[in-house]
Amino acid sequence: MFDNGLVTGPAPFDPAALRPRLPSPLQEVSDDRFARHGVRLLLKRDDLIHPDLIGNKWRKLVPNLEAAAGRPVLTFGGAYSNHLRATAAAGRLLGLPTVGVVRGDELAGRPLNPSLARCAADGMRLHFVDRSTYRRKTHPDTRAAVLRAADAEDAYVVPEGGSNAVAVRGCRALGEELRDHADVVALACGTGGTLAGLAAGLGPGRRALGIPVLKGGFLAAATRALQTEAFGGPRGDWQLDERFHFGGYARTTPALDAFAADFEERHGLPVERLYVAKLLYGLVALADEGAFPRGTRLAAVVTGAPFVS
Ligand SMILES: Cc1ncc(COP(=O)(O)O)c(C=O)c1O
User: Fold this and answer.
1) Do residue 131 and residue 204 come from a single domain?
2) Most exposed among 82, 215, 221, 272, judged by the fewest C-beta atoms under 10 Å?
């Protein structure tokens, strides 16, 4: 665009115009399962940051949207991806074209499920790919072919789950908001991007605890790699407890469902089931094992909210 002889790009996007609630609220809740071990439970309500860019989606996506500088944004996800929905909503709010590459070409001919229907209603162009292509999507040749097939070669690409160096640096603010208020900060992990940034933002003497919701034991290496990409090396004191994935992503048990419903009842918190329920369940079990010294201020990050179609 030429303006008074100067070459200018698209108007810069101002995240403050979306009026996020930042820092997100920190709420202490009274819960006997923690209190009897002398542990104070605090809920870090990242689910209240923004009604459409919920929780870690705000922290990871907004810096990427700034980096996209007005280019169409293309990203990847499964048929029920929170990340695809958030990207589509961001596109609607900011007037940015978005493309969602969806795992499973068998879905192409069928009516959209409520999650993908929401993406489409928000203006996201959906491009379905077969599972083997989807698995190879980070390979440069496959990625180039997918972008070509989706007619999006000029797009700014955000990886599946939204975790890249820009996103990880965006999540540092979560740690900075908590460093004066909590001794241990716990959160559920998928790719490890939020944990990688959070740990970097917490101060000395503070500890981050990740509860992976996927099975496989790959997350420590993935989190280290993300910290190296974002900061040049390891940052902060963090660890994982791999015991609370309940069989893997989106897997659940009657006991977990009952736990989540009971937590909602006790505390009036809508409990997102894929990540947040597993985190809270894990924390109750850990408190019972005596994992937190008496007097610990334990913050649980509410990284999402249930999807209501
Ligand atoms: C609600 C919720 N919590 C936690 C996570 C995990 O975040 P990360 O992939 O950064 O580990 C996700 C996925 O992005 C999520 O949707």
Assistant:
1) no
2) 221
